[in-house]
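Handout, section B. The chain below has 408 residues.
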Amino acid sequence: MIYCGIDWAERTHDVALVNDTGELLAKRHITDDAAGYTILLDLLAEYGDTEDNPIPIAIETSRGLLVAVLRTGKRQVYAINPMAAARYRDRTSVSRKKSDPGDALVLANILRTDRHAHRPLPADSDLGRAIAVLARAQQDALWNRQTIANQLRSLLREYYPAALNVFTTWTNGLCRPEARELLKTAPTPSRAARLTRTQIQASLKRAGRKRGIDTETDRIREVFRADYAHQPPLVEDALGKQMLALLIQLGAACTAADNLAQAVEESFPQHPDADVILSFPGLGIQLGARVLAEIGDDHTRFADARGLKAYAGSSPITRASGKKSSITRRWVKNDRLNHAGYLWAFASLRGSAGADAHYRRRREAGDWHAAAQRNLFNRMLGQLYHCLQAGELFDEQTAYPTPIAAAA
């Protein structure tokens, strides 16, 4: 067996090849471009790399063009955690010396000695990987939108409380088109107090509102004309200009989130696993796409449901040493999947009577809300694993069978 380790960087990469005994067979320094990739593939072919029997490769990342080139065919690529690679380096050298060629050699030796302890990158389909890109980008856009909205809310509290009072009754508040249009029309409370009914109606219509315009216009005009404390005029104008700058960023973030959500809605239903995922209560297109993005569509990725639960951080972890033993939640996990799991568990309480009963039993047993949600997510994740493996849709009676006493 030949093993390959690649220490990657932004512009250049170091490559090392070792055999079963740990002997260094070859090393190269390649560039991060098509010419460098060709040199790498030729080097692998020189040492016996074929389509049916490719050389396994260890690298400290799972993304980028280099990884995309290496994942073609049946080759197994192992993404080694940089912290794990650092511990392996300390195992072979107590002087704490470090070099890029040396790190490539360490990565190659990780596969030679402990290949069984690491997992290769999953063999996800191109459609599954494309959905993962869109779902993660849409999730990032939502987080970015909320961050900017929080900044805008904090700024309005300093000089424009009337605007916050107007938007309190609206779902999504500052992220709504009506809110952004009104703030653009009246960036300061002094200008807002002088708005006429016609100007407010025009702003709501430009934002796309169709119903209840007259009622909302009267309410908005009344709130804007109420008595509030004011900043000095020059300071108020400066804060208004700062608010308009934030408003531009918020509008761009809202547009990006909406466009990415539309892209997810177009691509996710085309996936073969979409029907199984959408059959679960609490999972819609956006949240189902996030779940698929993190677990992938390679059904051999996890040996059993326990592995998937540990990966999601829903199952507890035991720490035992001597006479001390504690069971706590997992801190090392896939944060995106864990975040989606909490939303999934919360949404399933309305869509599934069995899920709601399970949650209530956990609360009655003494669990806090977050712990009960995590326990419910843990159970539903095991059900999802079974359904994906068997190709079955979710069934309420099978997932949460009715007790005999309750049925009687």
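Note. The CA atoms of residues 49 and 55 lie 5 Å apart. Compare this with the example in section A.
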